[in-house]
């Protein structure tokens, strides 16, 4: 039976004003370190990559430099692959998986691709362990012109300033139990809507683009990831998080219409990964490795084209 819930901030059925946003922001506390967990690990990435500071976020709780990595062997004749992680900062394996790929595996693909990696798009969200930025804005609904989220605007500018086309784009995410425990109730409260409890899939899945699903590539990613961790089964109604399962472990969203990160690059091949870190069947290391396996699955597929 579905149950309605109300969030402790705001008046049920009424959209938040700046007063409620401020109250929500003041309730957030730092729970881990972007500097220790993310920035220091960047020192372990090999000389094949150039580290670029593409911006800085200044918030009440701190100042956050933003970093991207660009392969030094850049060749305009090679296709360019974009990898983004930590658009939702609380989704840990997206950040750590991107760093792990850069450290251990990325150099193996430099003969085939220009690689561009933004490991942690939302460092405030990483430290607070939250989906939103301090203005209660979801960066992954903000990859649009005149974006209201600085996190989204800055990484888009970083990519666009480099010029050239993006051939493929993989955006690394997680679906967590806290989506139902905290973030979806908060979203309903912010927007003055009634929250109805949903379900969380147990396992890995991908989100393709409704307008450009890249079904064969999604299948290659699923095949690669299932060597590392399990794939989410469909719910009894044939859906995952309410969307139709179009093939094993795959659903589709209209990426550009929703302002999602994987849509802004207008790449020919796009996907969003979703790892389930709260599963009893997977460890944090497996989750990080699943993100790496997803990248590898995509790149190997593209090489074989």
UniProtKB/TrEMBL annotation:
Superkingdom as given in the UniProt entry: Bacteria
Signal peptide bounds: none
Molecular function, one GO term: metallocarboxypeptidase activity
Naturally occurring in which organism (per UniProt): Vibrio halioticoli NBRC 102217
Domain Peptidase M14 residue range list: 30-305
Family that this chain belongs to: Belongs to the peptidase M14 family.
Pfam families: Peptidase_M14 (PF00246)
Protein name (Swiss-Prot/TrEMBL): Peptidase M14 domain-containing protein
Gene Ontology terms describing biological process: proteolysis
